Amino acid sequence: MRQQLVIVGAGPRGTGILERLAANAPEPYDGPGLDIHLVDPHPPGGGRIWRQAQSPLLWMNSQAEDVTMFTDETVAMAGPVREGPTLHEWAGLDGRTFPDRRLAGRYLHWVYERALAALPRGVTVHHHPRRALRVGGPRGGRQQVWLEGRARPLLADLVILTLGHLDAEPDAEQAALTAYAREHGLVHLPPDFTADSDLAALRPGEPVLVRGFGLAFVDLMVLLTEGRGGRYEGETYVPSGREPVLYAGSRRGVPYHSKIGYDWTGDRPPLPRFLGSAEVDELLARRGGFDFRRDVWPLVEKELGFAHYHRLFAAHPGRTAMAWADFEEKYAAAGGPAESRALVAAAVPDPADRLDLTALDRPLDGLRYASHEDFQDGLRGYIEADLTRRHDPAHSQDLGVFLGLLSVYGQLVRLGDTGPWWHGFFSYLASGPPGPRLRQMLALSRAGVLRFVGAGMSVTAEDGVFRATSPTVPGFSVAARALVEARLPEPTIARARNSLLRELHADGAAATPGGLLRVDPRDGRILDGAGRPHPRRFALGPYTGARTPGAFTRPRTGGPAFRQNDATARAVLAFLNASPVRVP
């Protein structure tokens, strides 16, 4: 009897697993034949997020040369390297272009088709354009995967969940806001993937409160301006008259940092240096566990500082006051943050050349503006300064920090769920919007279509409206009949709308303290409450405790998602090889 593998989710992660199965199968697979069932209501390759049926105005937030689905020699994995073209090579684009998501979807579908063609004889792939509802079956036997609209389940020797971003049931605050909106005839859009949100209820000319200043906000901004007929003439936005007025704020009160707009030259910092496999092994071996802020963050801070100063000393030595060899020795020996700061103060004369992660994380802390208009001027100046710096190679130590962030994230994957703060901080510094989007933000602000609220934005529901305030502008408030939560839902399995995950959890699959699905970081096997890996169930993606920055990554940066894909594919093939051949 042919063996059966079910992969739930046919987006970049599911496609990446298929590519790794194809790459590894000629070496370790020698079974009786294999059927792979891809379950996803959206087309294989792009899946939901990168589907081709979406607005052409929505871009990737990565340059075309920084997007690949193929491994290279920097990926630490057991399987073979199978190189392939980046998005820009495949599409014939300028590598510095920020492609639209529909083009990314076409690239991903091509990768999917290439993976199919690379599978060995005896392996057949079937796409089921349906939703998976639940997974059942004993630990020691075949699994059953129930699909929407199908009477009988798929039978599976193994199941891999590659679900991507999840919809979620509202938490108590969101449910209360939705109920208030219903009672008073208001509009409340809870956290969602912006391309799927119904924005028709946001009326032209009316104020709309927006909480969130990351990539979901950028999508919202685009769909409510250019998406409603507005256009840009140089640095000026020409409204169509159909736009609402967006009042945007967040915890930080500022947008994510711009993508860096220049290339790396010279030697890269030798990473990891202070947070590598040995340090992670030590953290994992601690009997009492570890605390992120107390035990992990000091190592992260030292690693990012090393990447920053390595680049500063190498590329801009005229702005340093010490030989690199002396600085490196003293930096490595520094006993704590205070000692490191003293060393940096002596070695780097200009404070603007020093790395201050606290100031980067909370740039508006302690700042107060006399009026709302003063703050608009102030935040436009902040965005303009960020754009200037992130496109000026004279500040290439910022690119060193970016490489440090990638290295750190690759190590932290092994620690499991480190909490939402780290993931948000990484995204804020390393995964912000393209520079042109921030220039559009400035144009919208000057046109009065976008208004900045400030840091620590608070929203109350009272007197029949939503009202926003921020300590950044004392005494200012704005009322609106519409509130949009511009962020993705938290990927917790307890509140996931996906019934498959909720039932897995109810059936014994464990959650991390942060509510993510607990998996073995080595190969993605789902863990139960006792820490036992399920022999037949795997999970990869942002809803797991071993989440990575993305399903695809920049070439030659180690790609932790690729490493995970390879380990899971090899574990799957090893299991299938060891399973006895069944007689029909």
TrEMBL record:
Location of the FAD-dependent urate hydroxylase HpyO/Asp monooxygenase CreE-like FAD/NAD(P)-binding domain: 6-165
Endpoints of the signal sequence: none
InterPro entries xref list: FAD/NAD-bd_sf, HpyO/CreE_NAD-binding, L-asp_N-monooxygenase_NS-form
SUPFAM superfamilies per record: FAD/NAD(P)-binding domain
Region of interest (Disordered), residue spans: 528-556
Protein name per UniProt: FAD/NAD(P)-binding protein
Species whose genome carries this gene: Streptomyces actinomycinicus
